[in-house]
Amino acid sequence: MDAHSVTYRGASPCAGFSGLRCADVLLEHGFQVTILEGRNRIGGRVHQEKLPNGQLVDMGPNWIHGTDDNPIHDIAKETGTETGNERYSTLMWDIIQDAFLHSNTSGDETDPSKSLLDFFKSEVIKRVPETEEGYERSRGLILQVAEMWGAFVGNAVETQRNLFCASTYHKILEHVAKPALDKADIQFGTIVSHIRTRDGPGGKVMVGTKQGRAFEFDDVVVTAPLGWLKRNLDAFEPALPPRMTQAINSLGFGCLEKVR
Fold first, then answer.
1. How far apart are the C-alpha atoms of 222 and 232, rounded to whole Å?
2. Cα-to-chain-centroid distance, residue 197
3. Which of 143, 200, 223, 239 could form a disulfide with 18 if both were Cys (CB 3.0 to 4.6 A apart)?
4. Assigned domain for 195 exists
5. Cα distances (Å, whole numbers) of residue 237 to 53, 129, 223, 259
6. Who contacts 33 (Cβ-Cβ below 8 Å, separation ≥6)?
7. Which helix (H) or strand (E) holds 18?
8. How many domains in the chain?
9. pTM, whole model, 2 decimals?
10. Are residues 160 and 179 in the same domain?
11. Domain Amine oxidase: where (predicted)?
């Protein structure tokens, strides 16, 4: 049986984690894979830059959300990616849980001028005594973690488990990208403008780019970001079904600013 020719495409970007993992799966099944990537690098939102002092930092995500049955967490362990001390996040969630318990059982006795941060500070002092080596740093880190996740206070925090990638995501990205880098045809700087599917049995999928190039494939898997899909629904011919466009338009996500 002849291998099929498959392309993963997304204007900005397509060689992100979804596209790279999808390429890996299809390569395992004998497909010939082409990845059309709008940028000049892999990784999508997962990428790093070096500071003037040589320190490598994540410009995108650097948390692993959930450690149970999480393949990213498994890859982090396999690649030796250093994660932040779980003790700090565990202490933070314990304090949040105690804060809600205190509010429910002793709410009438609570000083209304005291905030959750005040409760945190008093509890951190109790849980990280001065007799502990490096206690000031430990207290500060717990408070920093609490401030970073302040937006999630009020959720079922007792079920939240998150790890910080202290050594960045670069080893994880390298692991996920290796099959595609070794075996797939990655076309960098290729921004797709339209995807046209021909009718009939054996119909090919035509992919056009802003650079004026045209590609023909048996199948196309689109792993573009949600924002690109929202702005480019007219790139698909024929149009996507109403249920899909409605789902795309109804979805949304927030933004987490990072200061280095």
1. 12
2. 30
3. 223
4. yes
5. 49, 64, 17, 41
6. 6, 7, 8, 23, 26, 27, 180, 183, 184, 185
7. helix 17-28
8. 2
9. 0.63
10. no
11. 17-85, 169-259
Residues 235 and 189 in one domain: yes
Whether 257 is in a domain gets the answer: no
The owner of tokens 């011919």 is: 237
Residue position matching structure tokens 């290729």 = 190
Both tokens of 128, joined, read 């990280």
Domain span including residue 225: 5-48+174-250
Which position has the token pair 């940028």? 39
Examine the domain organization and report whether 153 and 185 are in the same domain.
no
- Print pLDDT tens along the chain (260 aa): 344 555 543 323 478 888 998 999 889 888 889 999 999 999 888 878 887 887 777 787 766 666 567 777 677 777 776 565 566 777 877 887 787 777 667 655 656 566 677 778 888 899 888 998 888 888 887 777 776 665 444 433 333 445 555 566 778 888 888 999 999 999 999 999 999 998 777 788 999 999 999 998 988 999 988 889 999 999 999 999 999 999 999 998 776 655 55
In a domain, 133, yes or no: yes
Among 164, 194, 215, which residue terminates a domain?
A: 164
Query: Domain holding 35: CATH number?
Result: 3.50.50.60
Last residue in a domain, options 114, 146, 164: 164
Q: Where are the alpha helices (DSSP H) in 34-85?
A: 71-78
